[in-house]
Amino acid sequence: MFSRLSERVAMARLSPLARGVRQANLTYLSPAKLAALEEALDDVERDNVPGDFLEFGVALAGSAILIAARLDDVRSFHGYDVFGMIPPPGERDDARSHERYTEIKEGRSHGIGGETYYGYVEDLYGRMRLIRERTFVRWPRMPSPAKNSLPRTTS
Ligand SMILES: C[S@@+](CC[C@H](N)C(=O)[O-])C[C@H]1O[C@@H](n2cnc3c(N)ncnc32)[C@H](O)[C@@H]1O
Predict the structure, then answer these.
(1) Ligand 1 in reach of 63 Cβ (< 6 A)
(2) Which of 75, 97, 116, 120 is the most buried (most CB within 10 A)?
(3) Domain identity same for 7 and 75
(4) Is 77 helix (H, G, I), strand (E, B) or coil?
(5) Domain for residue 76, yes or no?
(6) Residue 65 CB coordination number (10 Å)
(7) pTM
């Protein structure tokens, strides 16, 4: 009950673009985390913080859309992801990461809003292009992933 109320309050703080991203099931971020991201982007703009945007973990590009919406002629966006099945955790990763990986590997993971988990989607990269073309969410200055997301994996 309380969490639903706080989620509604956080949703009300979001920009229409962030609300659209969330309603289109394009992000794993909670409304509170999206609000924090938008506040950080406001700070960057207000204080003229120099530099580019790097995102490690693009998934369905929800947060990337919000970041890319703030690009100007100088700043660029670089998004990194495997765009497919995630690699297995290492021996220094915690038990929760191993459990989560097993769940994903065994096909038991669910996507946002009951959709297919993105790691099971063949050609997620191509699918993202389709999302970009077909959703109402505008990706105003989102660079082409093919050109700007190299390398496609992080090490
Ligand atoms: C929680 S999701 C990112 C959420 C996203 N920013 C959003 O708005 O919903 C984490 C992403 O990190 C990626 N990832 C995890 N480990 C990785 C690795 N070792 N190399 C590249 N990508 C990785 C996964 O494929 C996944 O898309």
Answers:
(1) yes
(2) 75
(3) yes
(4) strand
(5) yes
(6) 25
(7) 0.81
